[in-house]
Design brief:
The chain has 544 residues and is of the alpha+beta class. Strands 4-5-6-3-7-9-8 form a 7-stranded mixed β-sheet. Strands 1-2 form a two-stranded antiparallel ribbon. Helix 3 runs parallel beside helix 7 and helix 4 crosses helix 20.
């Protein structure tokens, strides 16, 4: 309840930021309210967009995802012990599952976890705040490049965008990548429009920071930043000296990640940066598994990737319905005609210079489709430029036509209401959101017996470490693995927890068993004291 009240207050504050000056002008200078109609529209849009992203964060999606649980645990471990669970001191990249996890979101989590504790709410709050901020950022971007009306349409469309709403409500660390790039494009636009060097330097600093958000950035950044700078030189928007300074800023900030890629590509030892920060060597290279660049059949795999990506772009879902819901897609399936029209207009003779930043972003994202095995998250960098093309298509369609305004508002309001109804009445559950592990783990917290927990959901050990606030040294000292050399280091046991069931389930005071009650196992439950906690049965010793 307190969390939701706090989020309502936050949503009001965020929306008030865009109307503070207009309200002041209206009250003090008696300005006409109509003069600020777009700001007042934006106030409503930001308020609704923030509320839908922030209220009920702890409860929906119900239960934590393994990746967000891992990011949050690492933030807690680093803030309290100075090391992650693999024993690395202030790592620039997390070893996590063995194949790596991006570190930026973990470091953003630290102040929230320090303030609010290691909770579901704290785990998801930075993602929600970043996503809400993007509503203002996209307004400012379109206002800068086009006009206020276009900015309001952009904010409204992103506010009701199904993909952006869904990704904002859980803490998957790689999902901040598109928002960070969006912020950088705002500063690039500010530089082009206002010709102040500080903006391009800030933009490229943000691009450097984005290297810590997701592995796909390693491919995207050079194919976005370098062609864009060449274009700006060609258009006499920037000289060679300032171009090099911008690239140096990006490179210096991203250098630890560049070193990390070199270390893990060539099997070199880990490096300590300034004697404090660890550039780790992972047990396996996940980015090699995700991309076709490193495969022997590069051409064949690239064609497969593009074909799969085209299907994903058309159908707007990948059958993993916690990423996107099939009926609604990424930004509503009925938006595709607007998207196509927006792309055509943006690459036309009249539109290509105005939309150059979006076009370069889209071009780099398209190239990435050749090398990444696609799902909604892996190609998440392509969704915002497609959203922006859709906005351009809608604006051109409705411009100077009241009937078209009403038609477009009506279909998107209907789509938004239908999506929200469907989304908040969907139980995502297994295997990606575990909504009842907390109660089971808390029940077992002070048990000294050997605990056998059925491996019925993904990476159960990270939930044990998260909810028990287990010291990170326990992982290095006691963790056993099913396959230590696999891409993912699946944990078999940690401390007194074993994540498998023995061949014989015996009624003995030394053992406790945790099983999924939906699994039909050949067990005589009458021999045990049975505790039922939602989907789980806990079998304890019973005197016979």
């Amino acid at each position: 309840m307190i969390e939701n009240i706090a989020m309502i207050i936050f949503s009001i504050i965020m929306s008030m930021m865009v109307v503070f000056k207009p309200i002041k002008e209206i009250i003090i200078k008696r300005e006409n309210v109509k003069k600020y109609k777009y700001e007042l529209m934006l106030f409503v849009i930001i308020l609704i967009g923030c509320l839908i992203r922030c209220v009920g964060l702890s409860d929906f999606p119900r239960g934590l995802n393994p990746d967000e649980t891992s990011s949050a645990y690492e933030a807690w471990a680093i803030s309290n012990y100075g090391i992650d669970r693999n024993g690395n001191e202030f790592p620039v990249f997390l070893v996590s599952w063995g194949s790596g996890q991006n570190a930026l979101y973990t470091y953003l989590l630290i102040p929230f976890i320090k303030l609010l504790g290691l909770t579901e709410f704290a785990t998801r709050l930075p993602m929600a705040i970043i996503s809400c901020t993007s509503l203002i950022v996209i307004y400012c971007l379109f206002k800068e490049v086009y006009n206020k009306k276009m900015g309001v349409i952009a904010a409204a469309f992103l506010a009701i965008c199904p993909w952006h709403i869904m990704k904002s409500r859980y803490g998957l660390e790689s999902n901040i990548f598109p928002d960070i790039i969006l912020l950088s494009t705002l500063f690039i636009a500010l530089y082009i429009q206002r010709k102040k060097l500080k903006y391009i330097y800030i933009a490229f600093a943000i691009l450097g920071i984005s290297a810590y958000t997701y592995g796909t950035s390693y491919f995207f950044l050079p194919f976005f930043a370098i062609p864009l700078l060449i274009y700006l030189i060609y258009k006499k928007k920037i000289n060679l000296k300032n171009t090099l300074i911008a690239l140096v800023i990006l490179t210096i900030i991203a250098m630890p990640i560049i070193i990390m890629v070199i270390i893990n590509t060539f099997d070199l030892p880990e490096v300590k940066l300034f004697g404090v920060f660890t550039i780790p060597r992972c047990k396996s290279n996940r980015y090699e598994e995700m991309t076709s660049v490193f495969s022997k059949d590069f051409l064949q795999n690239s064609i497969k990737n593009v074909v799969s990506s085209c299907k994903l772009l058309l159908y707007q879902h990948d059958y993993e319905f916690w990423h996107a819901m099939p009926i609604f897609g990424i930004f509503y399936i009925f938006s595709i005609p607007f998207t196509i029209y927006g792309i055509i207009k943006s690459f036309s003779k009249k539109g290509k210079d105005k939309n150059a930043i979006i076009n370069f972003w889209f071009g780099a994202a398209l190239l990435m489709l050749f090398v990444v095995k696609p799902n909604v998250v892996r190609i998440n960098i392509i969704w915002i430029p497609l959203v922006m093309y859709t906005i351009i298509g809608i604006y051109d369609f409705i411009n100077k036509s009241l009937k078209k305004h009403i038609f477009v508002i009506a279909i998107y309001l209907f789509g938004f209401c239908a999506f929200i109804t469907k989304y908040f009445n969907t139980s995502f559950g297994y295997p990606m959101f575990i909504n009842n592990a907390k109660e089971v783990i808390k029940y077992l917290e002070n048990k000294n017996q050997k605990i056998y927990m059925e491996y019925s959901f993904k990476e159960p050990y990270i939930y044990v470490m998260f909810y028990n606030k287990m010291e990170p040294e326990a992982f290095a000292d006691t963790a056993q693995f099913f396959n230590k050399n696999g891409v993912f280091a699946n944990v078999k046991a940690i401390k007194n927890y074993n994540f498998y069931l023995p061949e014989r389930i015996e009624n003995t005071e030394n053992y406790i068993y945790v099983i999924n009650k939906n699994n039909n196992l050949n067990i005589d439950y009458n021999k045990f004291n049975v505790q039922e906690i939602k989907n789980f049965l806990i079998l304890e010793y019973k005197e016979n």
